[in-house]
Amino acid sequence: MTEQAARQKAGDLTRKEVAEYLRANPDFFVDQDELLRSLTLPHDSGRAISLVERQVHLFREQRDTLRRELVELVSIARHNDRLFEKSKRLLMQVIEARTLNDMASAIDDSIRGDFGLDAASVLLFTEAELPEASQGALHVVSPSVARERLGSLLEGERAVCGQFRESEREFLFPDREEAIASVALVPLRHDELVGVFAVGSCQPGYFDQSMGSLFLSYISDTLSRLLPPMVQRHTMAAPVTDMATESR
pTM, whole model, 2 decimals? Predict the structure, then answer.
């Protein structure tokens, strides 16, 4: 093939074909130093740069991107580690609680103090009469009233985050001077629905559907298993107390 014919054939190649050839032959430019020096590319500054300079520039951009991603991943890992430690401390206190109100007090103190949120609420669904009035984060409601007020929020098993309706927020966090604006809620379910665990913030949009809720799941899984036997112990203790009072 003559040189003119070769040039004519090369001229018939499309940009796509050239790109595919170079992609299939990544070592094409090996020992092609003169060709590499003659190739130029436009730069953001307006001047032409060599292919080698362009590659160096791309490698630097890629390095900076990877560095930013690494810093972000490390930050997320540290944040998750702090959440895990806080959740662990709370769960230890919950497990060691002797009464429902002790459990509710531990949750309330941890969520507002350790986690820095504005409110916590444990709604216990039961018709049983408890020997002591609920305090702090604990609220005892009948299952029928809870379903009427919270509706579809009780149907799932995972955390639901968002702003909720005003009536729902007031039901979850009653008797508050400063209204809760954003809520994360997890149904407490073990064999059957036993209640809900909710945390709240006065800052609108603090919780949203994209937020991770792993620490809520840890706490709710534990509460779901501890609450039923604890309620049973409390209701069984009530008649014993009454009998002791009568015998005096």
Answer: 0.65
